[in-house]
Amino acid sequence: MTHDLGEAIRQTRKRLKLTLRELSERSGLPVSQLSKLENGKQRISVDLALKIAGVLHVPVTSFLAVPRPTPQARRSITRVGTGTRHETRGLVFEVLCSDFRDKSNFFWNVTVYGRSLDETGGWRSHSGEEFLQVLSGSLELHTRYYEPLILERGDSILFDGEMEHGYVCRSDEPAVLFMSNSMVPQFGSEASPSHG
Prior knowledge:
Blueprint (H helix, E strand, L loop, with lengths): L1 H14 L4 H8 L3 H8 L7 H11 L4 H4 L19 E5 L2 E6 L8 E8 L16 E8 L2 E5 L2 E6 L4 E5 L4 E5 L5 E8 L14
Antiparallel strand pairs: 1-2, 2-3, 3-9, 4-7, 4-9, 5-6, 5-8
């Protein structure tokens, strides 16, 4: 995979008629490091990929995506208000695109109306990563190793789901969130993160 990423960088650079030295000058990365990346002798981090993609004017996913042997063309649509709803203490989860099989991410609209950790079911944790963005209202996010964080409309956060966390509504109206959980497949089957 490292070699494929390096080859993608090399091909893009050549298509733009850039030498390694020119890419080095524009990106601020040493020629030796760029050469190692292109030859698959150094792993590419997200920071490096972002820097190189910015210089080459291509999406960063060009360097981070794992190529599939056969291209896929799947899609799943959830019309507004039609997702499967799960209600727990102080929270409502609406599952989005649940008919998309063998996925590694789960998507939710979440309404938080509980006004304390107690009212929203306390601490929770799950494998993978969690991303959330506040669509309306104000959220107080509790995480085990950090001070509580107030997130307002438009704010977003990504964190490790295994770190215990909890949600509290801080606005007069319920806080509405868009949430995505990336999952680590277990035993080859699809498992949904537990928010209950």
